[in-house]
Every structure is written in C-alpha cells, then in structure tokens.
Amino acid sequence: MNDSNEQSRRARVFISCGQTKDSAELETAQRIRERLQAMGFDPYIAVEEQTLSGLKENIFRQLQAAEYFVFVDFKRERLVPHRKAGSSKPQHRGSLFSHQELALASYLDLPLLAFQEKGVKSDDGILRFLQANATTFTDRHLLPNVIADEVQKRAWTPHTRNQLVLERDPAQSVDAQVAGTQIVRRFYYVAVRNLHRHKTATNCYVYLEKVIQLGIPSVEIPFGSVELKWAGYTLPNAHILPQAARPFDALFTHHAQPTLVGFNVFSDSSLFGHPPIQAAGEYEFRYSVVSDNFPIARTSLMLSLSTTLDGTTLKLKAGGD
User: Fold this and answer.
1) How many CB atoms lie within 10 A of CB 171?
2) CA angle 84, 85, 86 (to 5 degrees)
3) Residue 153, Cα to own-chain centre: how many angstroms?
4) Alpha-carbon dihedral of residues 48, 52, 53, 54, nearest 10 degrees?
5) Domains and CATH numbers, the chain
6) What is the pTM of this model?
C-alpha cells in the first residue's frame, strides 16, 4: 500500500477545542493534532464556523466521517454567581461551540475522550448526561501527552475506519461457462473492503450508477438502476466482516463476442441494469455500495474494451472520482 492510501485509511479523530483568538489555545490545538498524528491517526481540528454552509461542509461532514472524538473544554468567562455552593473557588463556563459539537458526537455515538480545564463548571451542558468522566487539566503545555496517554488506555487504534472502499486488481478476472450452455464469459470482479476493525458491514447492496462512453463528445448511456450480484452468491444483500473484502460481478464479456458487455443483475427486465455496450472503445463506470451501517462508498472504473478478449482491461480511475 502506498503512503497516500495508508494516510487515507487511518482512523480519523475529530478534535473539538473551541479555539478563541488566544494564541495559547491555537498552539495547544496544533500540538494535540501533531501528537495524535505521530501516533498514526488522521486528526482534524474543528474551527468555529460562522455560516450554515460552513457548518454543513466542514463541521458536520467531518463529524460524520470521524471514528473518534476528543473534547477539550477550555476555560471561558466567570459564571454569575461565580462560586459553587460550599466552595471558595470561582467557576467558569466552557466553550459553547465545543459543547454543541459534543452533542452532535454523542448523537453519532462516537467513542469519546473528554478533558476540562480546571475551573470549568464540571456538570455543565450535555456532559451532565453523558457520564464522560472528563479528565481535569491545569497545564495546557502537558495536555497533548495527557490525551495521548488516555488514547492508549482506551486502546484506540489508528488502523480502523468506518468506511467501505472499492478495490480492483486489473488481473482479477475469471472465465466461466454458463450453466446448461456452451457459452463462456469472462467476469471482472471488484472487491468491497470493510476498513473497520470490529464492525461488520450489514446488508450491503451494489449499484451501477452511471456509464459514460468516452469520446468527442462523451455520451452517457441511459439504463435503469438495479442491484448487481455478489460473486458466488445468490442474494442481492450481503454482509462484509471487519477488515475483510467481498467481490461483486462488475461486468462480463463474451468469448464469442468480446465487445459485448453484460451485467449480472437482479432484474427480470432488459430495461434495468443493462446499458447497451457492444462496441470497442473507452468507457467510464461509476459504482456505489450502500449498507445499513456505513456511509455510501463510490468509485469510478475505466473499461478499455477491445476486439480481442485479452486486450480488454478494467482499472480504477486514476486519481479517484
């Protein structure tokens, strides 16, 4: 696996620490990010957004994608009344923005580590209900190491991701005879890999979303969407075990007619899942995989369809989608 693929498969940690313009908070946030990155994680520092579009495109999207959540509650203004009953020490509010992110993370059921600066009201906001057992800190300079120690105690691993990815080995194809006939087809497989360390991807379905015949101009080939077949399996929905892969029939060609492309689909109509392809050329296919408990996975593949069987290739699109 190359470095870019390794980076893209590291566990993502959402760091919520409600930074103000205080340079000390900004520096602390960066040091937390660097410490987690050195441990092999892919950390993201939440920056306060002022617009709804910014929230949707940055904060919400990053939270939905994250595997872990680190909550850092920096001390803000004194509360009025600012002393806790029976105590001579003043109390402060925490970061409103971080508490909002914490509420979203709890809704998404993300694994959580919470840290509060000494002096922040301990039972404030949603923390009162989460039983997060926030760790109190006094020295911001030491906080990145404190967080790293807690990450190790919780056995958080960078080698997991709440993600399905589509993989294609250009050499992965097999010739098979259609049962009860003399027809031989060459099947091209695409594997769907579950990157999560513990969670099974349940009820996964594969779809061909789009087919484009490349040229000048390029032309999109219309067809009705329908479920594709998993390799060696007779149902449209399948489970994928943690850190395992399962192949599906991306397409097939015919030994007797190499430029005729077909698809194994769950449909009794030629209008669904059968884009008409029977001429040599370059084609782009877009596939998607949906499941009960993982985000939708998508990728594009390039078919170079030749007049000879061995001249045809199916590869992942360079540079992704």
Assistant:
1) 6
2) 110
3) 25
4) 0
5) 3-153 (3.40.50.10140), 164-316 (2.60.40.10)
6) 0.78
